[in-house]
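Model it.
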Amino acid sequence: MPTSKEILEQEIPKRIQAKPDIAKDINAVIHFNITGDNGGTWTLDCTKSADWMTAGANGTPKMTITCSNDDFVKISTKQLNAQMAAMQGKLKFKPMDMGLAMKLGKLLS
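Modeled.
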């Protein structure tokens, strides 16, 4: 099983390179607050043309996503449906911007 760190620092940049239109669609700074073991804070900056993912909270986010490490890994590996996780309160978006959340869903799953 990968960790959130591996997914955020390795997988997501690969997905953006494969589908650069997703980053153009998101076009925002997103903070990921991953809780529990192997957790931490990361910043996704889709306003840049490269180096999208950095450790720590950088810049002013348009949205902050909070999720436990275990649930984040399950969502990213398609073991947990992102919409179900959001409805169950396991995946939190602040502020709740449905359009942006849907675009991020494409990137995460």
